[in-house]
Amino acid sequence: MSGPRKQVLVFRELPPAQLARLQAAHDVTVANPRAGRQDAFEAALPRAQGLIGSSYRIDGPLLARAPRLEVISSISVGVDNYDVAALRARGIVLCHTPGVLTQTTADTLFALIMAASRRLVELSNHVRDGHWTANIGEDLFGWDVHGKTLGILGFGRIGQALAQRAALGFGMPVLYHNDAPVQAPALGARARQVALADVLRQSDIVAVTLPLTAQTRGLLDARAFSLMKPGAIFVNGARGAIVQEQALLDALDHGTLRAAALDVFATEPLPLSSPLRRHPKVTCLPHIGSATHETRLAMAELATTNLLAALAGEQPQAVYTGG
Ligand SMILES: NC(=O)C1=CN([C@@H]2O[C@H](COP(=O)(O)OP(=O)(O)OC[C@H]3O[C@@H](n4cnc5c(N)ncnc54)[C@H](OP(=O)(O)O)[C@@H]3O)[C@@H](O)[C@H]2O)C=CC1
Ligand SMILES: O=CC(=O)O
C-alpha cells in the first residue's frame, strides 16, 4: 500500500501500533470530540480525507464540513452512528469491523443471561454489603438457565454465536427471528426460525442481537413485552434504542417480566437519573460487549487496515454494504 500522503482524523484514540501504522503513511490528527477535543476535531474536518473512530454521530451537517472526505473507518460493527444515505450520496466509503468481535460479544450476552437468571450481581452485592450472615433463603434463589428456551432477535453473526453457546453448551432449545430466512446447520433441530411474536410468546429468555435501523428502532415496545411469557428474562446486547425503555420499566414494575440485563441504553453513558440504573430487577453494564484487550486490539487493527486500503484506492476487507 503506497500513494500520496493524505489527511487522517482519528476521532477515538487508537492503540500505539495502529496509530504508528497510520502515521507512517499519512498526516494524522488525533482529536476525540467526546474527550474534550471538539475544537481540534472541528478544525481538522475541512481537510480530512479519512476518518477513523467510533461512538460519535456523523450526520449530514457534519459531513458538509468535511468536503474532502473519502472514507470513514468505524471501529465498530454497528453503523447506526453514520448517516449511510448521506455517505452513499457523496461516494464516501464506510468500513466497519464485523467478525473480529463476534465471539467476545456472544460471551458478554451469555454472561448477561447468567447474571440475570442467577442474580449474580445482586448476590455479590449481598455479600459485599455484609448481609451474608446466614444461609440465603428462597427469596434469593435464582432460576435455571440450562434447558430453558432462548429466543434470539436477529440471527446474524452474534446471534448465531450466542445460539451455539446456548444450544450446545446449555442444552437450550433456540427460537430465532430474522428478516431473511437463515439457517444454522450445525445446530440442526436445536434452533428454529419463527415469527417475532412466537419468539416472544414461547421463550423463557429473549436476547436482542439486531442492528439499530429505522425498522428496529423502538421494536421492543409495550405490546412486545406484553407477549412475553410470565417470568421471562430480557437481555439486550445490541443497541439501546431498539427498546422503548419506559415500556421495559413498566413490564418490570407492573407486568410479569422477571428481570432484564442490559449492555446498551438509549442514551450512553447511562444518565445518573435513569431509573434503570438502580432498578432491583436490572443488571446494567457500560456497553462492554466487545471490551476485552484482545478484541478491542483486533478491532483497531482491522479498522486501520480498512482505512489504509481505502485511502490507497484498494478494496478494504470490510466495507459496509447494507442499507
Ligand atoms: N454491545 C456491544 O458492545 C455490541 C453490540 N453490537 C450490536 O450487534 C449488532 C449485530 O451485530 P452482528 O451480529 O455482527 O450483525 P449481523 O448483521 O451479522 O446480524 C444482524 C442480524 O439481524 C438481522 N436483521 C436486520 N434487521 C432486521 C429486522 N428488521 N428484523 C429481523 N432481523 C433483522 C440481519 O438479517 P439480514 O442480514 O438478513 O438483514 C442479521 O441476520 C450490531 O449491529 C451492533 O449494533 C455488536 C457488537 C458489540
Ligand atoms: O457496539 C459495538 C459495535 O461494534 O457495534
Automatic annotation (TrEMBL):
Sequence ranges assigned to domain D-isomer specific 2-hydroxyacid dehydrogenase NAD-binding in this UniProt record: 110-289
Pfam families xrefs: 2-Hacid_dh (PF00389), 2-Hacid_dh_C (PF02826)
Any one Gene Ontology cellular component term annotated for this protein: cytosol
CDD domains in the cross-refs: GDH
Domain D-isomer specific 2-hydroxyacid dehydrogenase catalytic positions: 8-318
E.C. numbers: 1.1.1.79, 1.1.1.81
Protein name: Glyoxylate/hydroxypyruvate reductase B
PROSITE patterns in UniProt: D_2_HYDROXYACID_DH_1 (PS00065)
